[in-house]
Design brief:
The complex is a heterodimer of chains A (331) and B (517).
Chain A: H1 2-19, E1 24-29, H2 31-34, H3 40-51, E2 54-59, H4 63-73, E3 81-86, H5 90-95, E4 99-100, E5 120-133, H6 143-148, E6 155-158, H7 164-177, H8 181-188, E7 192-196, H9 199-207, E8 213-217, H10 220-228, E9 233-236, E10 242-252, H11 258-268, H12 271-274, E11 284-285, E12 306-307, H13 311-329
Parallel strand pairs in A: 1-2, 1-3, 6-7, 6-8, 10-12
Antiparallel strand pairs in A: 3-10, 4-10, 5-8, 5-9, 5-10, 5-11
Chain B: H1 7-33, H2 43-76, H3 82-89, H4 91-94, H5 97-108, H6 113-120, H7 131-156, H8 159-167, H9 172-200, H10 204-210, H11 218-228, H12 232-254, H13 278-310, H14 315-347, H15 351-356, H16 359-362, H17 365-376, H18 386-424, H19 428-457, H20 462-465, H21 473-482, H22 486-511
Helix pairs in contact in B: 1-12, 1-14, 1-17, 2-7, 2-9, 2-13, 5-13, 7-9, 7-10, 9-12, 11-12, 13-22, 14-18, 14-19, 14-21, 18-19, 19-22, 21-22
The chains are: A alpha/beta (331), B mainly alpha (517).
Amino acid sequence: MKTLSLIAAGVLATSTSVVAETPVLTIYTYDSFVSDWGPGPAVEAAFEETCGCDLQFVGAGDGASLLARVRLEGDRTDADVVLGLDTNQTVMAAETGLFAPAGTDLSGLNLPIAWQDETFVPFDWGYFAFVHNTDMDNAPTSFEQLIALPDDVKIVIQDPRSSTPGLGLLLWVQAAYGERAPQIWEGLAPHILTVTKGWSEAYGLFLEGEADMVLSYTTSPAYHLIAEEDASKTAAEFTEGHYMQIEVAGKVASTDVPDLADQFLAFMVSDAFQSIIPTTNWMYPVSVPESGLPAGFETLITPETALLIDPQMAQGARNMALEIWLSALSQ
Amino acid sequence: MAQRAQPISKVLGHAVSLGVLGLIVATGVAVALRAEDGARIGAGDWAAIRFTVLQAGLSALLSVALAIPAARALARRQFPLKSLVITLLGAPFLLPVLVAAMGLIAVFGRTGLLSAVLSAFGLPPLQIYGFHGVVLAHVFFNLPLATRIILQGWLYIPAERFRLAQSLGFGPSDIARHVERPMLITVVPGALMVIFLICTTSFAVALVLGGGPKATTIELAIYQAFRFDFDLAKAALLGAIQVGICIVAVVLTRSFPVSDGMGAGLDRRLDIRPPRGWVFTTQDAGILTIVILFLLTPLAMIVLSGLQGIATLPPQVWWAALRSVGVALGSVVVTFALVLPLSFALSARSRLAELATSVPIALSPLVLGLGLFIMLNPYVDPRAVALPVTALVNALMSLPFVARILTPPVRALRSDYGRLSASLGITGLTWARLVAWPRLRAPLGFSAGLAAALSMGDLGVVVLFADGDSATLPLMLYRLLAAYRVDQAAGAALLLLALCLLLFWAFDRGGRANAAL
């Protein structure tokens, strides 16, 4: 009799666990986030420990195509959260009406600027910078110095039409020089070895030795230092200041698991998530975890001026900056 | 011609043609219908169209101009390891563009092999970035294809023709005029058109070697429309312009005379006696040396830089490699299901089949992928069908090449052996076994190898559909690069190169086990 009731209890237990389906949280992000070398796997494991859910990351191409993918799917999207947009896209993304305000507590943020967006939650950030080898003897300290260098000092940059850092550089020049941006681009033109589709190709060319400097992030040298114990890379600090990229996530309005989405966004700014970021995404956490930044990050340059075009203006600024860029480099 | 020998195959060929063209049109319409505003083509887009046509035209001309003497030398000279060399020479065409571009830059770049040699003599480094860099890269990719198409033409001349020429005491110039030129006239326009069309969809390589936004192609403009402006109407319109250019190219090619074959032969092993004299020997040796060095040095650089990384590749990369092989084999099956009826229809000069086997070359991969995504998304989870869709799209993309390889032998099979077979009453399976198989075996093997390798190396639509668990090897390669793991990425590139060649070699060898080469 006892055995029988045990079996009955067992059957009951199994059947209830079948009935109570594990909720699924679907997060669209850029491809390198979900890759085995990105933050994805560790983030998934850490969140699933506490959420009682199944977190599924979906890679939707690179950073520039993520928003396009979500717009393509519209209201029918499976996404509950979209992670990996940046501040140049937030206004455009909000205008689609596909995102809902998050209401996440952001009091713990320590970004170089005050965060005001109510829809999107930041999860990491970095400064764009030109990375070069430490043995480069005439490393410039401003755009104007770079322009004054001999023409055989070459940089490799990304195309703003297909790459997020490429667009970042456009806005950097725009934010630093405004009306003088066309002159700066004309001055830079002879130094541009070539323009690549994405960050990977440009960085690859730099590592091959094809160019003296590559447009990347101030945090790039940290990868070489920490993962490869190679201290030969550094970023040039520019006196004009450095343009910031702040990466954000947002809750999709049509989500069927809004509470879970909120829970994830809160988790995203907690130590568990933030401590994964520096050595997987090679960016700064938006809220420095209690354990601090990994050893090696203290060697990175820390720009005095953080530049960022107001997200409200970014849409107009980027179209104008693209026109300037195209006409300066097509001559 | 014996059109009535296989009436069913023509109906089937037309059905497949309509299916392929229907799918292409549907993807374009799907993208256009999702658009919010009408499309406008600006000055920048016209510049992109001009640049695209110009670089593609020049690349095609140069590739074919180099391929003619190279194919002739390969056809009439015997040398050790010739078969291996021919297989290796095909590699640049099969490689993912990013890998190939890295190999090219390792040779022609500012710090490349050639610049190192130049600096040893106190000369400045090579300047590869610019319009000439784009053309150089496209010739690198397409010279192998041009050589193979034209070589196929040479091998296709019946041995009896050369014997007759020899017994008539023809010199090399007489052979060129009476035997080789008629063959070239039938082969060269097609080769030019195919390469022109391939070059019209180039984007990442044109940009990186072109040195900047001057080298904006239509495909890059489509990217901009989709990702920068989210202007789907414009993306669809530009995609349609690309297809329009393709149709114009097809029509132009059609106006060239097409000879009705070279007459039937007895399937003897091709044995062209090479012309005597040091001028011809030097000429052949010279062109072969240049082509081999040009095509194989970048490959050697890929191998060298990848050796270290391939040993440290994590298991995920090997799994991705296995998935890619699976997709490639699936793609071969789909390719054959489509191409066999198509090549019979093509051999009967079906215009519909000609369009269906030409348009896919000029298709924007982005518009095709987007269209499929928009069409499938309401009904199935795109992630669930990532790999089958990739296999289908890869098959579609290799269709034009495979159809071009198969059609001449199929046409000859019908025009030269159709009546004989009919009068002897050989039909059905017996016909397939005794008449068709021995003549189609080599081109079938070549086609399968090409379809498999092209699918293996293609990044294609998987980017739009894949999640963490269905990444193919090319996607893994990009992921390694994006994670700064350059050495492992070089290892993955080597693995990809090796697998592409292995698949190609295995099928191709199976096909020409007892053939001339």
